[in-house]
Amino acid sequence: MEDNETRSQILSLRDRLSPEERTTASTAVTQCLAALPAWNQARTIMAFLSFRSEIDTRAMIEMAWSAGKKVVGPRCHRKDRRLEVHQIKAWTDLQSSNYGILEPPDSIDTQVDPQEIDLILIPGSVFDQAGNRMGYGAGYYDRFLLRCRVNAVRVALAYDFQVVEKLQPKPHDQTVDYLLTDSNLYCFFGVNGRKPV
User: Fold this and answer.
1) Does residue 194 sit within a domain?
2) Maximum Cα–Cα distance across the chain
3) Rounded Cα gap, residues 171 and 179, in angstroms
4) What is the pLDDT of residue 1?
5) 4, 14, 165, 168: which could join 53 in a potential S-S bond, CB 3.0 to 4.6 Å?
6) Counting Cβ atoms within 10 Å, is residue 166 exposed (0-12), middle (13-18) or buried (19+)?
7) Which residues of the chain carry a pLDDT beneath 70?
């Protein structure tokens, strides 16, 4: 099966999840993240603002605030397909974009250098058992990760059914270090050539 067909099928499955199924899975992933040493050591966290049927990141963001961590979230510049990150101190710091995704608004200047980020929570449509990731097709995160520190820890969040045996990554596709699902924790250090620091 072609990767794009796999993406369509898995996203269709994800969109059919009930609110209860999504909540149960998101709670399990949040608990797994809380136990991850890299999470506890990180001072600055980048978190995507979950949209539609993605693993819900709200509890993770609140967990980071409670622990005194600096939280940054992405703002998409669709004209040049670029992500920039801004500090988020409260839910009131966000507004809904034209696509319905919560983002820091253009009206405030809270931009943060990607080099400050210690750990990045990454969304995606499909992942494989070697740490490869398929996003949503625009390449925002693949380009953004190249602007982050080499040792910034990349943690992807997904449901169990979003993991396949093997994807066919393109040269520009960026891998992840951890993949947390509702029943598994995958660690890819040494598999994808990246090393823990």
Assistant:
1) no
2) 45
3) 20
4) 55
5) 14
6) exposed
7) 1, 98, 106-108, 197
Amino acid, res. 17: L
Q: What is the pTM of this model?
A: 0.93
Antiparallel, parallel or unpaired: β 119-122 and 44-46: parallel
Q: State the amino acid at position 177 in one-letter form.
A: D
Whichever domain contains 155, its CATH number is 3.40.50.10420
The secondary structure of 55-92, three-state, reads CCCHHHHHHHHHCCCEEEEEEEECCCCEEEEEECCCHH
